[in-house]
Design goal:
This protein is of the alpha/beta class and 210 residues long. The protein has a single domain (56-209), classed as Glutaredoxin (3-Layer(aba) Sandwich). 30% of the residues lie in helices and 15% in strands. The chain contains 5 helices and 6 strands; from the N terminus they run αββαβαβαββα. The protein has a 6-stranded mixed β-sheet with strand order 1-4-3-2-5-6. Helix 3 links the parallel strand 3 and strand 4 (143-146). The protein is globular and about 70 Å long.
Length: 210
């Protein structure tokens, strides 16, 4: 091969000479990824001001069922879930499975579920009437009659204004302090607000039992 031809071939294969001087490389910056927002914790639409306050003692409760008469003082050291309910409340019926499940799965760990019935119709003032409804709901936990609404007033209706429901639910910790509440209506395992409230309750119950 002729020498001059070899020089031409080597020149053609050589990498291009880097430009002289300072070279500025520009690049389109990647958009910063937004951090994923955690879903807001469920909060009660009413009664939030009662969280962290002492729960009042039971008052005027009669016709105890599935239990000897209880007092909040006698339950100190337990986690107590109190549900106010009525016989004609479809939302109470919807919530019954959640109450039953919590009673069945956590009573041995220190949870006491108490259902307090407050009559809204003349027939419901009779113990046999509301007990039959409790049986239909599957309630096996302690039940009592709040004949003159003394307890539901002291716990809920007289501790705020403009309450939407009377069938509120309270979770009381081992020291007798309100740790969680639902302002009435329904909660159950599922989607939407009732499901969010249910999951919040279960998480709080399990935290207190630990």
């Amino acid at each position: 091969m002729r020498p001059w031809l070899l020089v031409v071939i080597l020149s053609a294969c050589a990498p291009p000479e880097a430009p002289r001087g300072t070279v500025t490389i520009t690049e389109t910056p990647r958009a910063a990824e937004k951090p994923k927002e955690e879903p807001a914790a469920w909060r009660p639409s009413e009664g939030g001001e009662l969280l962290g306050t002492p729960a009042p003692e039971f008052a005027g409760l009669t016709d105890w069922t599935h239990s000897e008469p209880l007092t909040l003082t006698s339950l100190r050291g337990k986690v107590v879930l109190v549900r106010f309910w009525t016989t004609g409340c479809v939302l109470c019926r919807h919530t019954a499975p959640a109450l039953n499940e919590l009673h069945q799965t956590r009573r041995d760990r220190g949870l006491v579920v108490v259902g307090i019935h407050h009559p809204k119709e003349p027939a419901a003032r009779d113990a046999a009437f509301w007990r039959a409804c409790g049986d239909r709901y599957g309630f096996e936990f302690p039940l009592a009659q709040d004949q003159e609404w003394a307890t539901v007033n002291a716990w809920w209706l007289e501790r705020g204004t403009g309450r939407t429901y009377t069938s509120a639910t309270f979770l009381v910790d081992r020291t007798g302090t309100v740790a969680w509440l639902h302002p009435g209506g329904e909660f159950f395992e599922g989607e939407g607000e009732p499901g969010e409230a249910y999951r919040s309750l279960v998480e709080t119950v399990d935290g207190l039992l630990r």
